[in-house]
Specification:
The protein contains six helices and eight strands; from the N terminus they run ββββαββββααααα. By secondary structure, the chain is of the alpha+beta class. The strands form two sheets. Strands 2-1-5-6 form a four-stranded antiparallel sheet, with no helix packed on it. Strand 3 and strand 4 form a beta hairpin. The longest helix has 18 residues. The radius of gyration is 25 Å and the shape is extended. The termini are far apart.
């Protein structure tokens, strides 16, 4: 069994138009909205090799491997969260989305099954235009969310958003809980030790990117496209409108939009603001 494709119609902040993602199954799928229903089309995936990752005869086996790549802020983690939302107890702890998941079963079944459906009905349209209604899953599934890197994401709505989370991040967070009393701000309020680790890691990254080895000697040139550390890109009360740079996490984009909106307002009223400031001085 494998997740074959997902169709994302809406999301709180990830997309502006519907998106389709295929995961390299037996077929490549296409989706179109028809009133409140979804019509699915498909064609054979010529690069699919059945049981390519099945190196053993045990029941639990790997049927497919996929990689999600993209720039910072492209939505890689968000796509994983959309998939993960189907397996966790508190679904509303994650951003709202409207999506359809299809899964393929390694048996004689010709039709895919529905893992998640936020629409009315789903039909598979054959080449002769005949339509077959797809049904929901009839099996129990579970997932394990694993992240090998320090990617701390706190959710203020629920303490335990994912019961299947056995990632290194989660284990480290639990190990650091006894130390929480040792970490307090200037007002005496405790904070998570992992927040301090994340802050220190960010400082280390900035120090590396600003170092002579990287910025002047450029030792990584031609080896790895290391992200450069730039000066601030926001200029307040400038005479020229700054160009939007969207290589930022999606969570910050609404804030940056508000800042640009404020800048536009000040630029259009620059003379009036200047006269008011001179008058006040």
């Amino acid at each position: 069994m494998r997740i074959a494709a997902i169709f994302i119609e809406e999301h709180d902040y990830l997309i502006n138009q519907p998106q389709t993602i295929n995961f390299g199954g037996k077929y490549s799928y296409g989706f179109k909205k028809e009133r409140q229903n979804v019509i699915v089309t498909r064609k054979p995936n010529d690069t699919f090799i059945n049981d390519f990752f099945n190196l053993t005869q045990i029941e639990s086996k790997i049927t497919n491997i996929n990689a999600i790549v993209g720039q910072n802020g492209a939505g890689k983690s968000t796509i994983l969260d959309i998939i993960r939302s189907e397996f966790i107890e508190h679904k509303h702890a994650l951003p709202e989305s409207s999506a359809l998941f299809l899964i393929e079963i390694d048996d004689d079944s010709e039709l895919p099954l529905i893992l998640r459906n936020d629409f009315r009905k789903v039909f598979l349209e054959a080449e002769n235009r005949e339509r077959f209604e797809l049904r929901d899953r009839i099996i129990n599934l579970q997932t394990i969310y694993y992240s090998p890197h320090f990617d701390y994401k706190f959710n203020v709505k629920f303490d335990e958003i994912d019961n299947h989370d056995i990632s290194f991040d989660k284990m480290l967070e639990k190990d650091l809980i006894p130390l929480v009393d040792d970490f307090k701000n200037e007002d005496g309020w405790p904070y998570s030790p992992s927040q301090l680790l994340l802050f220190r890691n960010s400082i280390r990254q900035i120090e590396l990117l600003s170092s002579t080895l990287v910025s002047q000697k450029r030792i990584f040139d031609g080896i790895f496209p290391l992200q450069e550390h730039y000066d601030p890109i926001l200029y307040f009360r400038s005479n020229q409108k700054t160009k939007s740079n969207w290589n930022t996490p999606t969570q910050l984009r609404n804030i940056i939009n508000l800042i640009f909106s404020k800048l536009d307002s000040e630029l259009s009223n620059r003379k009036q603001i200047k006269k008011q400031l001179i008058k006040e001085l």
